[in-house]
Amino acid sequence: MSTRRVTLAVVIGAHGVTGEVRLKLFTDSFDSFRAFKIFEASGRTLTLKAAKDTPKGVIARFAEVPDRNAAEALRGSELTVDRDALPPPGEGEVYIADLIGLAVVTTDGAAVGTVFAVENYGAGDILEIEQPDGKRFMVPFNADAVPEASARIVLDPAFLP
Fold first, then answer.
1. What values do phi and psi take at 103, rounded to 5?
2. Concatenated DSSP letters for the chain?
3. What are the distances in angstroms from CA 125 to CA 98, 118, 122, 159?
4. Are 151 and 103 in contact (CB under 8 A)?
5. What does the pLDDT look like over 101-123, one tens digit per residue?
6. Beta carbons within 10 angstroms of residue 93's beta carbon
7. Residues carrying CATH 2.30.30.240, the chain
8. CA 61 to CA 34: how far, in whole Å?
9. CATH dotted code for 5-85
10. What is the pLDDT of residues 6-62, one digit of tens each?
């Protein structure tokens, strides 16, 4: 089992008085989230009892959350699973969690830094790259920049700051 955790959702608030919570999902679909039953959240294990996809978002109930106060206490908690529990990514896909920490090199092999974060402000994924001196810059991301079975990202020098 890996020690890397992947966030599948975050608790955004309580729903009702019986311990249900509202979730923001980071999965590609509701079914992808619902495929998991055990999550880690704020240092504790949560067991999914039920989840429903509503027009206003996902509502979930966990066995360990008996009432609204317990649900409110989870606000902001990330629901994570072990990286090894995820299915392999499809053709042309990559898990964002797998990008963090990857080496970044130019097309001629010169070291640039490492991937510090992946952001998405609506127009597509953006890599935040940290250089050896600690300075960071952002570049647009294309999954084609990560050759299959590679432990690095190849960056066109035109994107260097």
1. -70, 145
2. --S-EEEEEEEEEEETTTTEEEEEE-SSSHHHHHT--EEEETTEEEEEEEEEEETTEEEEEETT--SHHHHHHTTT-EEEEEGGGSPPP-TT---HHHHTT-EEEETT--EEEEEEEEEESSSSEEEEEE-TTS-EEEEE--GGGS-TT-SEEEE-GGG--
3. 14, 7, 8, 15
4. yes
5. 999 999 888 999 999 999 988 88
6. 9
7. 96-159
8. 12
9. 2.40.30.60
10. 999 999 999 999 999 999 998 889 999 999 999 999 899 999 999 999 998 899 999
> Where in the chain are all domains bearing CATH 2.40.30.60?
5-85
Count, residues in the chain: 161
Residue whose tokens read 């960071």? 136
Map tokens 């392999």 to a residue: 88
**Topology of the domain comprising 96-159:** SH3 type barrels. (2.30.30)
Amino acid at 60: A
Residue listed under structure tokens 């920490």 = 101
pTM recorded for the entire structure: 0.76
Residue with tokens 């935040």: 128
